[in-house]
Amino acid sequence: MEYDVITVGHGLAGLVAASELAGAGKKVLLLDQEPASNLGGQAWWSFGGLFLVDSPEQRRMGIKDSHELAWQDWLGTAGFDRMNDEDEWGYQWAKAYVDFAAGEKREWLRSLGVRFFPVVGWAERGGSLADGHGNSVPRFHIVWGTGPGIVKPFADRVRQGIRDGLIHYLPRHRVTELVTENGMVTGVRGEKLAEDDRTRGEKTSREVERLFEVRAGAVLMTSGGIGGNHELVRANWPERLGSPPARMLTGVPAYVDGHLLGAAEKAGGRLVNRDRMWHYTEGIQNYDPVWPNHGIRILPGPSPLWFNAEGQRFGAPNFPGFDTLSTLEAIGKSGYGYSWFVLTKKMIEKEFALSGSEQNPDLTGKSIRMILSRVLPGAPEPVEKFMKRGEDFVVARTLPELVDGMNDLVGEERIFLEEMERQIRARDREIDNKFAKDLQVMAIRSARASMGDKLVRVAPPHRILDPAAGPLIAVRLNIVSRKTLGGLQTNLSGQVLGADGEPVPGLYAAGEASGFGGGGVHGYRSLEGTFLGGCLFSGRQAGRALSQG
């Protein structure tokens, strides 16, 4: 047989697995429906955040973390409630992944040349009890070079494998079916698509030149999730999150369409936790889109006030950066598909960042000079561009002007000045003391006890209606589709399991196609920094297991 393994998908998980296989001397066929310009998949577009536990970066910042605390946070966040069924292997993957994140993950990456920005971020802060959802401490380690920086070492290893004759790479090959013989997956069938020279991330054609079929000892599915396919997202949307929004932005390229998950099911694989998904609530329309309906996520600090579409402030834990799933549920049940941040220029200068490698040219380009400019007056340049050109921003000198602008933006008077002013003044009265009953104000003061937040992330508490902190800013926030938390159920070797719980011979999965491990390593919620990490870990696990065959 010409190939030991066919890897379907040239995203991060596929690159990690292929590089592991080539390193063990195995012959790999690497296929993807997109052009070679998209090598690295979604990971290339990412902010490059990785979940690490008790790292040197944390310790230098005075953060006391531990494996026990991380595992407590993971369990409180995941909420596994389908044990001995859909969550059985996700739970085992979670234990293995936290071990990895607290153990060899950092040194393994450093051995490949990966380095980290010294300030550790605090994502998904939780906002409930100690054993509930959220990171108890900052754990979000940004790769120096963001998404391209984490893709590069594995892409380089794959290119070396190609030069060594161990990896055969065929872009523009769209797999549509798995070949099975006597209950065993032995290959793939699909369509050779016409060449397309569009740049990374742009939607490409599906013009078919010819059909193809190829065989191998095993097939590894690393073909991603469903975030670019709103029809599938809505079909799997759970009732507990309310109604899916009528308008939703897309946080991933169009090729993230989930078309191969059904093919794996037909071959005997079990798809679990379909109703678990991770969509962001702070999406803004990209004024310069790369893919259709391109949404960018705001990575907010904790200070902006968050209101629903009718101008009612959300309560705990629905503060910026605290509990994504809870806020998604609150928005879904509000009857509208959008919400609002209201903040000051003083807040946006320190607290707004935009997710994605292309929105962070300083970190992506490894420019210390540009990074130092973040401490200068004014919002970061990408944020300034959205304020001037983005359709979701309203900037005004006074609150009446701001409310008028918010209503004009949606074409209907849904927000009333008197009620908005009442809520903001009530919050502003809580600022005069270093203690308060407003939980968001308390959270802001707690955040500034963290060195990283105080230095670069959280503005000093101040009155929103203080003219010296202005102008006032409102941002319409849209739901932006992103991650699939469920997927093909796999054991710790990456073998896809069937309905009987036994491995489907010859079929493996990794990355988002496998729910980042086990069909749902995250349970219901993510601690963030765990999607790239899940691709790294599940791709490595599958690659190493297949290398033993």
UniProtKB/TrEMBL annotation:
InterPro entries: FAD-dep_OxRdtase_2_FAD-bd (IPR003953), FAD/NAD-bd_sf (IPR036188), KsdD_DH (IPR014614), Succ_DH/fumarate_Rdtase_cat_sf (IPR027477)
Gene3D superfamilies: FAD/NAD(P)-binding domain (3.50.50.60), Succinate dehydrogenase/fumarate reductase flavoprotein, catalytic domain (3.90.700.10)
Residues of the FAD-dependent oxidoreductase 2 FAD-binding domain: 4-532
Keywords assigned by UniProt, alphabetized: Flavoprotein, Oxidoreductase
Listed SUPFAM superfamilies: FAD/NAD(P)-binding domain
Regions annotated as coiled coil: none
PANTHER family found in the cross-reference section: 3-KETOSTEROID-DELTA-1-DEHYDROGENASE, KSDD-LIKE STEROID DEHYDROGENASE RV0785
Protein name per its UniProtKB record: FAD-binding dehydrogenase
